[in-house]
Amino acid sequence: MLYRRFGRTELQMPVFSCGGMRYQFKWQDVPNNEIPADNQANLEATIRRALEVGINHIETARGYGTSEMQLGRILPKFPREKLIVQTKVSPTADAKEFRNTFEQSLKNLQLDYVDLLGLHGINHPESLDYSIRSGGCLEVAQQLQTEGKVRFIGFSTHGSTESIVQTINTNKFDYVNLHWYYINQWNWAAIEAAKRHDMGVFIISPSNKGGLLYEPPQKLVNLCAPLSPMVFNDLFCLSHQEVHTLSLGAAKPQDFDEHLKTLELIDRSSEILPPILARLESEAIATLGEDWVKTWETNLPAFEETPGEVNIRVILWLWNLAIAYDLVDYAKMRYNLLGNGGHWFPGNKADQLDKLDLRQCLAHNPYADKIPKILAQAHRMLAGEEVRRLSQE
């Protein structure tokens, strides 16, 4: 395993982390005796495998249902000083509720402290206000630090790049969990801001949210050869020293195996990546057109500025991925979260276009006439059953 300094925490963080949202029994709390023995055995085998290969950062959240409780059966069996344990608690208007929720997390984990506490989902102004206002959740987290129950405080986010940078620039957090990978590089400015503040940078779900790379389409497999899409994406992320660790949402012990192939390639990333990157860009240009690939995002409105709050930018991005790389299943999964994801995946689908006039909000985009037709095409291609966030299931 390779390790990187996790910003000002000074923790030696493995470049892969064991994320805790795919191996648990349920997304809701259930009594301990309802957790099937085979499910618990698989979780424990996954944790043992992670530690065996040097992945000593175990990451979970209060919002991950039975994950914390099930980890609480296995983590106390290992030397505490050899583990880096992170949990996350969502900020709320009532800071006392935040504290009570954290205390439940600690009880579930059967630990005296966590190394990392993330304020979970600082995605919009309201959740930031809940966090940093006087008497807010960050003050509670700092009190927990004083009590020895938390070592370092960070935040996780699915928010806009601007809101992430705003939160980073408060300089009140030691690390950030955010999205950034090959198919979605929008948050690079946030990673640069984190570097300026010497914060740890943790990439959320690069294999799942980065394209459902556990089951990649054949076209993407061909474009990423000789690497698998998963190893390509890992290598792309880790070739940037500003990135410290990638979350691997392992569902079983074998899920680490493909990722581990990345480790021996990192020192050669400057020679391995360019041909693959060139193929991916060439294919996008061949299927979508060079002008579109290079300028489609020009002056697009934010969803809040769009009639019907249609999330034009995200829909066009998903359409691009589906057309260029056959990432249709991924695009469907993400598209059908629109309208259902709250502040975790905001904005709406393009299902009411006949009732909306988008001309004014698109007036400064070079494809103002073309975009409504693409939005309609994207809806026909991607619309299906509504998708709920995993924690809502």
UniProtKB/TrEMBL annotation:
InterPro entries, per database record: AKR (IPR020471), AKR2_Oxidoreductase (IPR053135), NAD(P)_OxRdtase_dom_sf (IPR036812), NADP_OxRdtase_dom (IPR023210)
Cross-referenced Gene3D superfamilies: NADP-dependent oxidoreductase domain
Every NADP-dependent oxidoreductase domain range: 27-210
Pfam family of the protein (one): Aldo_ket_red
Protein name, per record: Aldo/keto reductase
Organism annotation: Nostoc flagelliforme FACHB-838
Lineage of the species this protein comes from: Bacteria, Bacillati, Cyanobacteriota, Cyanophyceae, Nostocales
CDD domains xrefs: AKR_Fe-S_oxidoreductase (cd19096)
